């Protein structure tokens, strides 16, 4: 083992076998761990979402009672709607897959681009908010170290996620549990320990609301409430993370996904709705340098009567768990973001490399890109939470709206075939009305304050995806033409094919998915080395990527597809009087698997030369090199270093 390999194993862990049942069991998430890893983003929004909504009420704080009820109800409405997404798309994909399948590819592109930007901002804003909360407990002189701390934390989370999803969640689990325990105790005591206020809050709110309606009218009062409700929309972020990562859950996937969604909805509804009710019961008012959560939790701790020392320590613990939960929420960006990149890469909106799994069975390229993008955003914004909140507040509701619109379309179309259509359509329709309303108000209110930056960034991502998709479509069309030229004639299997001779010269062809490309290489070899090679051996390897690694059925489909593809080459050679055979392999790294096959062939057929083809573009540039992995060059280098000869034949498009 080289020094590099030892260091890699130390940092991110030893390689995992993708075909082992124990590996799948090891990395699959039970509902509780999925709640920790994927629910933290939504739960962490209780640190800022309820405060935004309550402050927007201004002097009319009595409307906070309705706000608390509406917040809890909305969480469950959206969650129930996303349970439908889990049922319909058990292989994952979330908002991107829903919009693509039920509305159209362009709607899916918009949803996917919004999710990518949103997950990057999830990392940036969660880390920045968490660091702000931690540094509020330190002397002001430590403020100079905030930006460096934020960058270091993003880098640490990046490295942690390269080790694997479950590993990162287990490290962050104590922080999550600390938040749950402290907030359940404080919210429960704050509500029921304030029994006198609790009995008065309902009649007082009703009376004050009647007075407000009498003064300004129903329309104005309702508009005031809806504006505040919409501005607190950050409370609902993170709900779609479960549906986006369904395939990472433990079997039975749909049941585990729904249970995870129930945990998330219950905890978020209790926390967010409970905090708004605490603001009302404890008459929380803004204090310079403190969040409303800090104010109200400080008041609750003082009511215990243990003295100022206890109050300070207790409040520090509560705020520290809030800050820690924000770091756990930042990790959701590293879990969900790469999954979106992978799904979009599978549809050729992004470079295909984003589908590939690392030796630890994580989408390594996506994790790295999300981390680097978050570092850039944190540097650009200098960790300003106020600016990041504005950037963060639009895209999540754009995705919600497209997903729920897709569900409404689906259930309307299914009204003649599915008896459940009416109540499912009702849930989806209510959710659509809520999310579309919040999106509209947020866009209008926040556009001039910096929301336009999000629109510009998302539009730029969409434009890049369109350019990439156009290029892949062009390449596919050219390869299809080549396939039709070289593989038009049928090649039936011969009962007595020409025999192989292990001592004779052998040509070993590394082939991919294009039949025409493979036959093109065979014809070139016959032209360059007429009547020299007696054995024609075809080898192929396919990477087990994020889409295919979902269970035994997907792996078996890959095996069958490879077997059929290689049988074509063998039959083609046999039909032309050539001795031929084929072998294939599956793994997380295509180059590694092909090198292993080459070493096996070299041992059995000592007198062999390896051949493969490489696409050559008339106007090659950095974009074509990015979009088409350099597998041929990497293979040539590896084989030459091992003393095996390999020739790359160009295939011009």
Account of the 3D structure:
This protein is mainly α. Helices cover 69% and strands 6% of the residues. It contains 24 helices and 5 strands. The protein has helices at residues 3-12, 21-27, 31-44, 49-56, 64-88, 94-102, 105-135, 146-162, 165-192, 195-216, 218-231, 241-244, 253-281, 292-303, 308-346, 364-381, 385-392, 395-413, 421-486, 515-528, 552-575, 590-604, 622-627, 631-641; strands spanning 506-510, 535-543, 579-587, 608-616, 646-652. A 5-stranded parallel sheet has the order 3-2-1-4-5, sandwiched between helices. Helix 20 (515-528) links the parallel strand 1 and strand 2 (535-543). Helix 14 runs antiparallel to helix 15. The longest helix is centred in the C-terminal third of the chain and has 66 residues, at 421-486. The model has no long low-confidence stretch (mean pLDDT 82).
The count of strands amounts to: 5
| Assembly state (oligomeric) | single chain
Distance between the termini: 40 Å
Tell me, briefly, the overall form: elongated
The number of helical segments is: 24
Strand content: 5-15%
Annotated CATH homologous superfamily of the largest domain: Amino acid/polyamine transporter I
What is the fold named in CATH at topology level of the largest domain? Amino acid/polyamine transporter I
Please tell me how large the radius of gyration is. 29 Å
Q: Classify the secondary structure makeup into a structural class.
A: mainly alpha
What strand line-up does the widest sheet have?
3-2-1-4-5
Which architecture of the largest domain per CATH?
A: Up-down Bundle
In round numbers, the mean pLDDT is 82
Percent helix among the residues?
55-70%
Instruction: Summarize the biggest pleated sheet.
Output: 5 strands, parallel
Order of helices and strands: HHHHHHHHHHHHHHHHHHHEHEHEHEHHE
Number of domains as seen in the coordinates? 2
Unreliably modeled segments: none
């Amino acid at each position: 083992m080289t020094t590099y390999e030892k260091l890699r194993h130390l940092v991110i862990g030893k390689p995992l076998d993708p075909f082992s049942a124990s590996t799948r069991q090891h990395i699959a998430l039970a509902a509780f761990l999925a709640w920790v890893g994927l629910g933290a983003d939504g739960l962490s929004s209780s640190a800022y979402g309820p405060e935004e909504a309550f402050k927007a009420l201004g002097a009319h704080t009595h409307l906070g009672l309705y706000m608390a009820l509406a917040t809890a109800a909305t969480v469950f409405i959206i969650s129930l709607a996303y349970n439908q997404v889990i049922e319909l798309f058990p292989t994952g994909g979330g908002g991107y897959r829903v919009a693509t399948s039920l509305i159209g590819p362009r709607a899916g592109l918009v949803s996917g681009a919004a999710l990518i930007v949103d997950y990057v901002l999830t990392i940036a804003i969660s880390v920045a908010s968490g660091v702000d909360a931690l540094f509020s407990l330190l002397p002001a002189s430590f403020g100079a170290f905030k930006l460096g701390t934020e960058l270091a934390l993003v880098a640490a989370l990046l490295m942690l996620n390269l080790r694997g999803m479950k590993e990162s969640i287990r490290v962050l689990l104590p922080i999550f549990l600390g938040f749950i325990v402290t907030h359940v105790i404080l919210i429960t005591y704050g509500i029921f320990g304030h029994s006198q206020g609790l009995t008065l809050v309902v009649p007082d709110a009703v009376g004050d609301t009647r007075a407000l309606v009498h003064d300004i009218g129903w329309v104005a009062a309702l508009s005031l409430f809806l504006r505040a409700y919409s501005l607190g929309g950050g409370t609902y972020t993170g709900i779609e993370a479960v549906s986006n990562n369904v395939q990472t859950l433990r079997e039975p996937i749909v049941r585990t996904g729904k249970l995870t969604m129930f945990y998330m909805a219950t905890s978020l509804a209790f926390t967010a709705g409970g905090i708004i009710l605490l603001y009302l019961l404890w008459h929380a008012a803004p204090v310079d340098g403190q969040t409303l959560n800090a104010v109200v939790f400080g008041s609750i701790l003082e009511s215990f009567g243990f003295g100022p020392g206890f109050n300070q320590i207790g409040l520090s613990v509560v705020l520290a768990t809030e800050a820690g939960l924000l770091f756990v929420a930042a990790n959701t960006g590293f879990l969900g973001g790469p999954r979106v990149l992978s799904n979009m890469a599978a549809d050729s909106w992004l470079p295909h490399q984003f589908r590939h799994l690392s030796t630890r069975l994580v989408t390594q390229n996506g994790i790295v890109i999300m981390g680097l993008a978050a570092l850039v955003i944190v540097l650009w914004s200098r960790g300003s939470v106020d600016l990041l909140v504005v950037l963060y507040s639009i895209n999540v509701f754009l995705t919600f709206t497209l997903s729920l619109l897709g569900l409404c379309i689906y259930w309307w179309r299914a009204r003649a075939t599915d008896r459940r259509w009416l109540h499912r359509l009702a849930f989806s329709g209510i959710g659509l009305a809520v999310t579309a309303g919040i999106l509209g108000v947020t866009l209008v209110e926040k556009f001039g304050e910096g929301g336009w930056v999000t629109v510009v960034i998302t539009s730029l991502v969409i434009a890049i995806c369109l350019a990439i998709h156009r290029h892949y479509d062009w390449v596919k069309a050219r390869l299809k033409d080549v396939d039709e030229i070289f593989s038009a004639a049928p090649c039936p299997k011969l009962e007595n094919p020409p025999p192989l001779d292990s001592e004779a010269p052998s040509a070993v062809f590394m082939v991919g998915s294009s039949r025409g490309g493979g036959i093109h290489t065979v014809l070139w070899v016959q032209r360059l080395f007429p009547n020299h090679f007696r054995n024609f051996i075809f080898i192929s390897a396919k990477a087990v990527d994020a889409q295919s690694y979902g269970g035994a059925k997907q792996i078996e489909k890959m095996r069958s597809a490879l077997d059929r593809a290689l049988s074509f080459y063998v039959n083609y050679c046999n039909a032309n009087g050539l001795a031929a055979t084929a072998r294939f392999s599956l793994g997380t790294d295509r180059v590694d698997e092909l090198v292993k096959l080459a070493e096996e062939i070299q041992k059995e057929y000592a007198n062999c030369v390896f051949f493969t083809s490489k696409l050559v573009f008339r106007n090659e540039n950095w974009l074509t090199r990015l979009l088409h992995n350099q597998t041929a060059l990497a293979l040539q280098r590896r084989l030459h270093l091992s003393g095996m000869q390999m020739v790359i034949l160009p295939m011009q498009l």
